[in-house]
Task: inverse folding
C-alpha cells in the first residue's frame, strides 16, 4: 500500500540567490512542483509515497529524478518524454514575500502525460489511501484527460481525493478554463486545501467564511483548509470552524513550498486519524502542525529537497508553547 500518490507537475524552480559581480541576479535550479513538494514532506512524516508525472529526457529531468529518489518518493510512475523538455519556472520574490512566476512550458513535459501513461500506472493509483492532485495537470487537453482518468481509477479503488487548486494564471489559456477545471477538481475531492486569494478568486467572496459556505453548499467536501499566509489558517469540518495563528519567522527568505508543506501536514493528520468529522481540539492540533511546517520552509530556498524534519516541527511548537499551552504535535 502507498499512503499517498500524487499526480502532476515536476519542474525546476529557478529562484534568486544573490547577485553576481556584474550585478546580475544569480538563479539556483531547485527541484520543485507542488505535488512532489507535498510528497517530500509526507515522506518526512514517515509515509510511503509515489508520484505520477512526466519530465524531459534532458539534464533537468535527470536532476529531478535524482532529487525525488533521494527524498524517498517512489518513481515507478515518473516517465520521460523524448521530444519535449522539462518544464522550467523562474520565481521572483516580491517585497512582502509574494512571488511572481515566469514559466517555460509551451509545451512542457508535464503536459504530455497521457491516459495511456496513467493506465500503465494503474497499480500504483489503486494501491494508495489518498490520491492528491492540483489544477495544473488539467491546463491542456492531453494531461486533462490523463488526470480525469487517474481520478476515476482512484475513486473506483476507494481512495480519498485531495485537491489543491494551486492557481498559476499564466499557465491557463483563459481564466474561464481555469475556473472550469478547478470546479471539476472541487467536485471530485474529499479534502480541499485552498489559499486565501484562490477562494476569493473562485467564489467572488472577500470573506473567507462566506466563500467556504458557498463551496460547501455546492460540493460534497468533507474537510476544507484555507491557508492565509501571515494570517494563519482555517479549517472546516462538519459544523466546526477553527482558526490557528501562524508561526511568524524573522528570517523568512521566500514562501515557495509553504502551502505544500502545510498541505502535507494536513494529509499526515488524516492518514493518522482517518477522515471524519473532527472536533475543535483536533482541528487545532492539525493546523498547528501544518502551520509550523509551513513556517520552517519559508526560511529555506526551494522546497522539495529541504523539507523540515519532524523533530524541527516539534521543536518550533515547543518553543512557542508559552504563547499557547494547548498546542500539540500529531
Result:
Amino acid at each position: 500500500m502507498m499512503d499517498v500518490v500524487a499526480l502532476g507537475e515536476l519542474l525546476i524552480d529557478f529562484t534568486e540567490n544573490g547577485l553576481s559581480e556584474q550585478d546580475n541576479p544569480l538563479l539556483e535550479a531547485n527541484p520543485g512542483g507542488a505535488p512532489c513538494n507535498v510528497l517530500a514532506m509526507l515522506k518526512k512524516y514517515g509515509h510511503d509515497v509515489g508520484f505520477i508525472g512526466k519530465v524531459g529526457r534532458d539534464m533537468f529531468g535527470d536532476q529531478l529524478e535524482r532529487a525525488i529518489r533521494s527524498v524517498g518518493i517512489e518513481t515507478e510512475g515518473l516517465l520521460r518524454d523524448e521530444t519535449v523538455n522539462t518544464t522550467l519556472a523562474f520565481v521572483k520574490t516580491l517585497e512582502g514575500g509574494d512571488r511572481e512566476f515566469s514559466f517555460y512550458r509551451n509545451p512542457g513535459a508535464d503536459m504530455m502525460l497521457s491516459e495511456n501513461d496513467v493506465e500503465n500506472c494503474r497499480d500504483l493509483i489503486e494501491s494508495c489511501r489518498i490520491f492528491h492532485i492540483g489544477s495544473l495537470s488539467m491546463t491542456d487537453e492531453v494531461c486533462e484527460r490523463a488526470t480525469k482518468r487517474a481520478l476515476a481509477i482512484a475513486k473506483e479503488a476507494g481512495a480519498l481525493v485531495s485537491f489543491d487548486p494551486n492557481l498559476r494564471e499564466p499557465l491557463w489559456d483563459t481564466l474561464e478554463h481555469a475556473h472550469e477545471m478547478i470546479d471539476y477538481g472541487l467536485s471530485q475531492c474529499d479534502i480541499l486545501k485552498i489559499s486565501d486569494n484562490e477562494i476569493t478568486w473562485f467564489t467572488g467572496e472577500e470573506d473567507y467564511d462566506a466563500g467556504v459556505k458557498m463551496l460547501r453548499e455546492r460540493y460534497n467536501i468533507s474537510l476544507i483548509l484555507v491557508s492565509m499566509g501571515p494570517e494563519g489558517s482555517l479549517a472546516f469540518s462538519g459544523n466546526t470552524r477553527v482558526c490557528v495563528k501562524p508561526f511568524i519567522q524573522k528570517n523568512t527568505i521566500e514562501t515557495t513550498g509553504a502551502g505544500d508543506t502545510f498541505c502535507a501536514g494536513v494529509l499526515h493528520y488524516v492518514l493518522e486519524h482517518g477522515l471524519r468529522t473532527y472536533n475543535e481540539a483536533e482541528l487545532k492540533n492539525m493546523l498547528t502542525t501544518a502551520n509550523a511546517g509551513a513556517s520552517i520552509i519559508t526560511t529555506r530556498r526551494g522546497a522539495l529537497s529541504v523539507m523540515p524534519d519532524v523533530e524541527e516541527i516539534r521543536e518550533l511548537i515547543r518553543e512557542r508553547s508559552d504563547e499557547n499551552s494547548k498546542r500539540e504535535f500529531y
